[in-house]
Amino acid sequence: MLVKRLGELLDKKVSKKTDAAVVVPVFDEKCPKIVMIKRSKGLNRSAGHIAFPGGMIEDGENEVEAALREFEEELGINPECVDVLGFLRPREVHEYRIMICPVVGMIRTLDFVPDGREVSRVLVDELRKVLKSRRITDWGPNFECAGQLVWGASSRVLDDLYLRIVRRYGSVDAFFEGI
């Protein structure tokens, strides 16, 4: 049921040219989970930020290939364990002028093997709880995932999902009824 509901909300193709791609990983169980990462402090870009796993699109790759490659590099999850459902609207990482493509995927495992050079912590939280933590601030929407503040491009990705759910179902709780 979750796969069907999410699939109905998502775009079937990327709406604009992007430089990078991220996986928005959802684990389907009684209380569906979302996975984010805390980026390592030694990285050149977005060090210490809460983000979705992903990175730059390399020559010859499309958005899905790049997102799944980066997901495997950062968290050790084989691309065959991810069922791509669709896309959210591309978002800009303002400080670097990088347009990212959010690829929503259902993952079949939470057995991560994080790359310590890129990931300092894996965050797993209930999707409903994360979406319901939405707050609007002077700098835009923010959320909380596993006790960590999500802001910037990652919060705008979550906000796109939140708004699609609320527009279609009226509330986050209504979306999750019967799942």
UniProtKB/TrEMBL annotation:
Pfam families assigned: NUDIX (PF00293)
Any one GO MF annotation of this record: coenzyme A diphosphatase activity
Keyword annotations of the record: Hydrolase, Magnesium, Manganese, Metal-binding
Keyword Secreted: no
Domain Nudix hydrolase: 17-144
Cofactor(s) the protein needs: Mn(2+); Mg(2+)
Keyword Nucleotidyltransferase on entry: no
PANTHER family (UniProt xref): MITOCHONDRIAL COENZYME A DIPHOSPHATASE NUDT8, NUDIX HYDROLASE
Protein's recorded name: Mutator protein MutT, putative
